[in-house]
Write the structure tokens for this entry.
Amino acid sequence: MAAELHVELVAADRNVWSGEAHLVVARTTSGDIGVMPGHQPLLGVLESGPVTIRTSEGGTVVAAVHGGFISFAENKLSLLAEIAELSDEIDVKRAERALERAKSEADASAERRAEVRMRAVTGH
């Protein structure tokens, strides 16, 4: 079994993150999934939610992901998202305002996106 896997997190408009990792956790339509080196090949649909990448250097990368696909084969994991933002790119005050606005307008889709962004930054 390989000690690490190559990860590519790509949004529709850019390459968000690329590197080596030993664990990636993402939310799919079938539930949360953890992918480690040597995992069985998979193809799934991503749900909106935080993606956590435990890097080979011992760090953690968290991204807010909204829709897309996850694919794993031969120790290469691809996360192809409609929208993806790294947690350190998210403006917390702006995300809080977006969440409050979505709640007041009863916009469930916008509320879900804002909640995912907040969870990516705060961890809950």
